[in-house]
Design brief:
This protein has six domains: 49-158, 2-Layer Sandwich (Beta-Lactamase); 190-285, Beta-Lactamase (2-Layer Sandwich), CATH 3.30.450; 302-413, PAS domain (Beta-Lactamase, 2-Layer Sandwich); 436-533, 2-Layer Sandwich (Beta-Lactamase); 540-630, Signal transduction histidine kinase, dimerisation/phosphotransfer (DHp) domain (Helix Hairpins); 633-785, 2-Layer Sandwich (Heat Shock Protein 90). 47% of the residues lie in helices and 22% in strands. It is built from 24 helices and 27 strands. The strands form six sheets. The protein has a five-stranded antiparallel β-sheet, sandwiched between helices. The chain has a five-stranded antiparallel β-sheet with strand order 7-6-10-9-8, sandwiched between helices. The termini are far apart. Residues 739-752 have low confidence and may be disordered.
Length: 786
């Protein structure tokens, strides 16, 4: 087939184009092969880097499918990488080990979903169950080139070692923080000023005590203003002194004075270098210590000056048994020189030199005696000795061991006191003999009330035993023993008052007491010049009895005269009243004053009543006279007391009702005695009349008949009690004696001879009458009959 040139040209062009295209394809293929090879090499390199990288990728798709290297599965303890994220946790009941806990998977899925939706990265740290491995997860939204569709890329870091180290560092930091806080708190709360200077020697830290000491407001103000607590010393500021300490790296201490808290105080300042970081300093207030030291020195000097003024010799030996101090009396007693004291003479040498001067007792074995005295330094209790020296001198030596191992030696010259003691003993024996020869009983009491001295007649006078006085009893013990011998033991207080007045009040006091054996003693307490009290006792029994006899005789005569006067006065009153009544009404009848029969009858009745009263008084006088003379006729017969009392009450019924009184008669029949019914009735009637007269309107009279108590000598008791006006003790005494009341008092029937006559009649029946009365409360008469 014939081809045209155009065709050939076209074919040639096509072939050329094909050749060019084939060459281009070959070249492109070569480039692709090279690129693929380079990509494989890069992939291998990246895979190696991923395998060696500290973080492992975990690609999580939206549906929960995951892509991860097998290394992550091994890290999680799984045999192979699961397909889904939920398979990272073991199903409940599955014995498979490894993987995450279900809660961890749920938490991770929630964070991944949040990242997939919001593209917000997240961080999460987990610890594998049953393992010490800790993983850090950092999740972000995956690049579309890596995984399109909103997948999440989670990088997993194994920071087990880092976590442990961080925990250790965190604990160390917390501990260091706590220690630093405690240290800062301690420094801040310290009562002493403390500060810290940096390497540039400027103040960088001060505590509150420093702030208060310099009078600042805050620590920042002190640091900012560089307020120094201390003053310059020898032209060097505190910073320069601290610089020297920092340079030498040696702690330095010094005592300075400074003004703190507004007062001048002495401080002990310490500078402590802290490496090359700076210098710490603190100041301790030692003003009180310095003051105590000054006071101690002053006290020691004053004590030694005081000891020099004592009459007792005092010497001080230190723990090395050397003489450190001796007062003037000690030097005089042992002939010590100032050089011997200043030379601190040893104790053994001091004894040897004292022996040479004749100031120690004469002993057979002096070395042994000296060794025994050197043993005083090791004793715990004080030792006292008597040293008789040649020439008649007597020394009292007391060795007092000291807590520091030293010894205080006290010496006293007792030569004169022993001589005075001998003279005193002689005087005491003379005084004792003098006291024993006196007729009076004497005892000397000390100011504390104890018995110091007594003569031989003192114990016998008071009825005491010599053994009791030998014990030197106190005043209370002595008075207790004396009180048992008194008629009235409470009178022993009078003796105590005399002793107290003589010893304490320093005045004389007298008194008298009666002993149970019938004796009467007169005593007196006399103060003595020595502060004691003297109790002198005299038996006045004989003179007291003679005086009592004379007094009783005089009283009997006075009483007889008074009875006579009272009897005459009473009888004059009792007789004159009815006679005056009779005479008056008789004169009225004679004068015709009673014009009618009724008035005349009243006058006659008044005359008859007065006659009856006069007759009664005459009979009372006759009965009383016969009773006192023992001539009263008594005709006894058996009578029932209740019947007798009933009859007496019935006879006075009108008078009782007229006076507006109530009367209770208590008793039972069968109370029979031998008595004269007339005389006993008169006695009881007088007592009832006395109760009726003395009881106002509305009062009450109680008459009770009862048997007498078994221990009584009487057989029957009759009680007549009223709640009337009553009588005082003086009025009752006058009524019992038949005495008329006071001149200004109105006459009362109660004050006649009724009560004395009743007593005489009752006593004639061998009975007794007891009257008791109280003003405003009534009167009670108690009759006892055999």
């Amino acid at each position: 087939m014939d081809l045209s040139p155009l065709s050939l040209v076209l074919i040639a062009l096509v072939l050329a184009a094909w050749a060019v295209g084939a060459g281009a394809v070959v070249l492109r293929a070569n480039r692709s092969v090279k690129r693929a090879k380079a990509m494989r090499t890069s992939l291998k390199r990246m895979q190696t880097l991923l395998d060696l990288a500290p973080a492992l990728p975990l690609l999580v798709r939206v549906d929960g499918r995951i892509e991860a290297p097998d290394r992550l599965a091994r890290m999680l303890g799984l045999g192979a990488t699961p397909k889904y994220l939920s398979e990272l946790a073991a199903a409940p009941g599955t014995p498979r080990a490894g993987g995450l806990a279900q809660a961890q998977v749920d938490q991770l899925w929630n964070k991944i979903q949040t990242t997939q939706k919001s593209a917000a990265p997240f961080r999460m740290a987990i610890t594998l169950p049953n393992s010490q491995r800790s993983l850090a997860l950092y999740g972000t939204l995956a690049d579309p080139q890596v995984s399109p569709g909103g997948a999440a890329l989670v990088w997993v870091f194994d920071f087990t070692e880092s976590h442990a180290e961080m925990a250790r560092l965190r604990a160390a930091a917390a501990r260091a923080t706590g220690d630093f806080a405690a240290l800062v708190g301690l420094i801040e709360a310290a009562p002493m000023p403390m500060w810290f200077r940096g390497s540039d020697l400027t103040l960088q830290l001060v505590n509150q005590a420093y702030v208060d000491a310099v009078g600042a407001m805050t620590a920042a103000e002190v640091v900012q203003s560089q307020i120094e607590l201390l003053e310059p010393e020898d032209g060097r500021s505190p910073g320069e002194i601290a610089g020297a300490t920092l340079q030498s790296q040696d702690k330095s201490e010094r005592i300075v004075t400074a003004t703190i808290y507004g007062a001048r105080r002495t401080l002990r300042v310490s500078d402590l270098p802290l490496g090359q970081e700076g210098v710490a300093g603190y100041a301790i207030d030692i003003e009180e210590q310095q003051q105590v030291a000054r006071d101690y020195r002053a006290f020691r000097e004053a004590t030694r000056a005081l000891i020099d003024q004592l009459s007792v010799g005092v010497a001080l030996f230190d723990g090395d048994e050397r003489l450190t101090f001796a007062n003037r009396p000690f030097r005089r007693l042992f002939s010590l020189t100032d050089e011997a004291v200043d030379a601190h003479t040893p104790f053994d040498r001091f004894l040897a030199e004292a022996r040479e001067r004749g100031c120690t007792p004469e002993v057979r074995d002096f070395p042994e005696w000296r060794r025994e005295r050197i043993g005083w330094f090791g004793m715990r209790e004080s030792v006292e000795e008597a040293w008789p020296l040649p020439g008649g001198t007597h020394l009292r030596v007391v060795a007092q061991p000291m807590p520091d191992g030293g010894l205080v030696l006290l010496t006293e010259d007792r030569t004169e006191s022993l001589a005075l003691s001998a003279v005193r003993d002689t005087l005491l024996r003379t005084r004792t003999a003098t006291l024993d020869s006196l007729f009076e009983a004497l005892a000397i009491f000390a100011p504390d009330g104890s018995v110091q001295l007594w003569n031989r007649s003192f114990a016998g006078t008071w009825g005491l035993t010599p053994e009791l006085l030998d014990q030197h009893p106190s005043a209370d013990e002595l008075l207790s023993a004396i009180g048992r011998n008194l008629v009235r033991p409470e009178e022993a207080s009078l003796i105590g008052a005399a002793v107290r007045a003589a010893t304490l009040d320093r005045r004389e006091k007298q008194g008298r007491v009666n002993l149970a054996d019938g004796r009467t003693l007169r005593f007196a307490g006399i103060p003595l010049p020595d502060g004691n009290g003297l109790l002198t006792v005299l038996d006045i029994t004989a003179s007291e009895k003679a005086e009592q006899a004379l007094r009783e005789r005089a009283e009997a005569l006075e009483e007889a005269d008074a009875v006579k006067a009272r009897f005459l006065a009473n009888m004059s009153y009792e007789f004159r009243t009815p006679l005056t009544t009779i005479g008056g009404y008789a004169e009225l009848l004679k004068s015709g004053a009673a014009a009618d029969a009724q008035a005349a009858g009243e006058y006659v009745d008044a005359i008859l009543t007065a006659v009856e009263r006069l007759t009664e008084q005459v009979e009372n006088v006759l009965d009383l006279s016969q009773s006192e003379a023992g001539l009263l006729p008594i005709r006894k017969e058996r009578i029932d007391l209740l019947d007798l009392l009933t009859t007496l009450v019935r006879e006075r019924e009108e008078a009782i009702i007229g006076a507006g009184l109530s009367l209770d008669l208590k008793g039972r029949r069968g109370r029979v005695i031998e008595a004269d019914p007339r005389q006993l009735g008169r006695a009881l009637g007088n007592l009832i009349d006395n109760a009726v007269t003395g009881t106002p309107d509305g009062g009450r009279i109680v008459i009770e008949l009862r048997k007498a108590p078994e221990d009584s000598a009487a057989a029957m008791e009759i009680s007549i009690a009223d709640n009337g006006r009553g009588m005082t003790s003086q009025e009752l005494a006058r009524a019992l004696g038949g005495l008329k009341p006071d001149k200004d008092a109105p006459p009362e029937k109660r004050s006649g001879l009724g009560i004395p006559l009743a007593r005489q009649l009752i006593e004639a029946h061998e009975g007794t009458l007891e009257m008791s009365s109280r003003k405003g409360a009534g009167t009670t008469a108690l009759i006892r009959l055999p």
